[in-house]
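Incident log, structure service

09:12 report received: a user says their structure output differs between two submissions of the same chain.
09:20 pulled the input from the user's history:
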Amino acid sequence: MQFTRLLRNPSVTAAEMSLHAGRLTGRRVAGRHVVAVQDTSELVLGSRRARAGYGPVGRGNVAGLLLHPVLALEAGTGALLGLVSMQVWNRNAGELAPRRQRVTANKESRRWIDATKQAGAVLDGAASITMVSDRESDFYELFAERPHNVDLIVRACQNRRIEAPQEGPDLLLAFIDAQPEQGRFAVTIPAAPGRRARDAELALRFAPVAVRRPLNAADPALPETVDLTLVDVREVSKPEEGSEPVHWRLLTTHCVATKVEARRIVDLYRSRWTIEEFFRTLKTAGFDIEAADIGDPHAMINFVAAATIAAVTIKQLVQARDGNTDQRLSDAFDPDDQTILEAVSAKLEGKTERQRNPHPKGSLAFAAWVIARLGGWTGYYGKPGPKVMRIGLAEFHAIKYGANLGLRNV
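09:34 re-ran on a clean worker, output below:
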């Protein structure tokens, strides 16, 4: 009942939760090189109660909410450092004017610009910030209005007009296709729904481009051109039947002059997969948030915001379970939690080597072992996933609540 009242309280907002989570993440990223990953997910609410009052999402006659989070990752390790910001909204069910008749401020696409500016403010203490996003974010205003302290990597979607160099093609895709191949490298393409993991050979092309302002609907106050670099990477090995070959065209504000620098852009873009795994944690793999039966949109928006913050911690624990990210406990827990985690670990450990916590105290991996054991993992078989971590984290918070109870006034 307390939680229900909290969600329905008009003074409780997703925006305030986002600000609080962002402040915590801002402290963790100080001095680090950070990759900020943003994307949008549709939350389809299938319960009968949840259909009334919610706007359309997806295709067909379905209703729900939209969530647009920004996650902070450590460049190089890919370790999830925290939530930068999030936007949760209920789409208006009424008809809108055609897209080209609306200014950017009145479009949902504004979220990409707002999120990038929020990342620049929240992560200002980082050594560097690179914002990574997929094809939906490929629009001119994002490049023209980016904060000075944020670099961009955007997968190109539009065949844009460019300043033609030396009588060459004046369209983006024709221009890069005409460039000679500048190197190859091998990667492992991770598994995804309907696709097995595979090794692939990729070919690189890259070149600077001056992208021209669109002729239609663009604000005339924007600069006439924006200087970017286009990195083209395409799979030259033959994928197995049923798999599409990789082909990414990446527009970036980073300077790219060598094959090594181009490969780095590709690797930074590949870290975008973390947000896909995060959405899976929030939905089917961990929280099953779309099954929530909340008829009040305001309460549901607050619930989505709270679950998003919790899902970040779950994803951090799953990442850290093998000790590969080398993260500190403070990347996901309060400083006072270490004593409780160590006490619980001592109680959970058994006599055999497999039953002992193998990770150093003060590390996030140490905490992940404790949370997984609380969630029902035996330590012997398989690896703990999001559901196990979610159950274990709830158990830990119950233990923490009990440990912090004051009995002096009873």
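09:41 both user submissions now match this output. Likely a transient worker issue. Closing.
09:42 reviewer note: The mean pLDDT is 90. The chain is about 35% helix and 20% strand.
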